[in-house]
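WARN no homologs supplied; continuing
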Amino acid sequence: MSHPVPKFEIWLEFEHYQQEPDHDPDHDFANVAVTLEDGRRYALNVWTFGVIPHLRHPWPHREGQGEPAEYLLPPDLLVSRLDRPTIERVIRQLFERGEFKEDWLCARS
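OK structure emitted
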């Protein structure tokens, strides 16, 4: 069953800082804000599938150095790629499928 998709705007953390030349959007994580037309605002911590193995190792992420983490607290969302087209498409799909979580809603100030 398809759900209505509200009009939304997204804010992507990675668009607000200078990225390193070797930045790889398939191996990254960021904060994302989704604001609906009615003023509701949602905050998500988004990781790519590719970044997970790197997060098990101490910063900077160098495999083979230090003990790998025994666990990771999960993000709100895992995606294939951290870029605007992918995030917009995924947010739209979450709304269409009724999977957008109310847990992501920020308290009104």
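The chain has a mean pLDDT of 90.
OK
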